[in-house]
Amino acid sequence: MSYLSDVAALARKDLRLELRARDTLPAMLLFVISTLVVFHFTLPQGGSRLAAFGLLWVALVFTALLGLTRCFAAEREGEVLDGLVLAPSDRSAIWLGKAIAMLVFLVAAEAVALPAFALFFDPGIDGRTLLGVALADLGICTVGTLLAGMAAASRARELLLPLLFLPLAIPIVIGGVGTSVAGGGRYVELLVLYDAIFAIICWASFEYVVTE
Amino acid sequence: MVAAVAMIAFFAPEDADQGLSQKIFYFHVPIALTAYACFGWGAWKALLHLWKRRPGADLESYVAVHQGVIFGALTLVTGSIWAKISWGVWWAWSSNQLVLFLVLFLFYAAYFMLRFSVEPGPRRANLSAVYALFGVALIPVSFLAIRLANDFIHPTVFTSHGPQMSGRMFATFCVSWAAMLLLVGTLYHVELAGKRLDSRLRELRELLA
């Protein structure tokens, strides 16, 4: 029980920080809207509805990436990560709390992005797409938070995260585009499989990312 | 290795459809399988590092991944040549294996970026090991994903991966795979010895300074 309360406390800390400083979320919102507008001009006249869905996924992944680069920024600037590691709780709670906070940010950004997408491109978003987005969010946040922790320890920092993240995000993108374009349960299964495998690996290995 | 080349040249029968160009198969597929073996070996060493804290496992994992990336790049090159000859294009997105190798190549190239941007020490060893473990999980997942992706990118899936092998072809294939594994084993040991010597030298130099 105390594990869950640790996680809740850590997630609450990040959300409160965001409410007060408003560092990440407004940037993500603006970014996703501007990306969609740019995409409108990159899509040739009469481009298919399916192509628009592909662009949606590009916008979502890059917006998540933008949020993830700021993921451990507050900890790094305040130099509190060592304190968190020394705190008497399981280290994976740090990861889970962060991932939950990231998930909240991402869902909030999508709450704006999806209506905007529907408004700009009129693609006909259905329940399948929403399910795909939700499952992909889980995968993006679990994997992305761990990789952000890794990148925070490196010299290159913000530069490194996209390089680490994008190859790992390819299955997510395939699953997500598949659910919204091709339909069918197999893509949902793929996303569930991905989420489960990588959540377990992240949960087990986060301790080694923050300790020596 | 020499035996493998000799067998490829003289022993294996020529493919009825593809003729001489089919012989690149005996390089391409063993190289690809060897690259998988390297990635697997690297992840295994990474696991040993994290789990048992075995000293030196980090370096071994790095060397294995390094060899894997070299062989992965060779797979891309040979696969591309083969695709040009048999399908007429240098790059075919419909070839699942080739796309998978591209993804893996990008992934492991990022591994090097990560490794070279963290100060040497236990922290770097941990980060590299965790990332190498991600790699083995990524291989089956992205293989599955890429195969599924063919449904909406290319409705017709290529199945022209050559006809079934005859006995002589299979024997040649096995010999050349064994040769590749032998080659990578040798390279692995040579590089490991070099790296160990290097770190030992650095320690001695620090002692002197």
Structure report:
The complex is a heterodimer of chains A (212) and B (209). Chain A is globular and about 55 Å long. Chain A is built from 9 helices and no strands. With 212 residues, chain A is mainly alpha-helical. In chain A, helix 1 (2-21) packs across helix 6, helix 3 (49-69) packs antiparallel against helix 6 (92-121) and helix 7 packs antiparallel against helix 8. Chain A has one domain (2-210). With 209 residues, chain B is mostly helical. Chain B is 78% helix and 0% strand. Chain B contains 6 helices and no strands. Chain B has one domain.
Global Rg of chain A? 17 Å
- Average pLDDT of chain B works out at 79
Q: Which spans of chain A of ≥5 residues are poorly predicted at pLDDT below 50?
A: none
- The best one-word shape of chain A is globular
The span between the termini of chain B is 45 Å
Helix count from the secondary structure assignment of chain A: 9
How many E strands of chain B? 0
Task: Give the SSE string of chain B.
Answer: HHHHHH
Uncertain residue segments of chain B: 154-160
Q: What's the number of extended β-strand segments of chain A?
A: 0
Summarize model confidence as the mean pLDDT of chain A.
87
Largest sheet composition of chain B: none
> What is the element string of chain A, with H for helices and E for strands?
HHHHHHHHH
Radius of gyration of chain B: 20 Å
Helix content of chain A: over 70%
Structural class of chain B: mainly alpha
Instruction: Please outline the major beta sheet of chain A.
Output: none
Count of the separate structural domains of chain A: 1
Overall shape of chain B: it is: globular
Largest interface: A-B, 35 and 33 residues
Fraction of residues in β-strands of chain B = under 5%
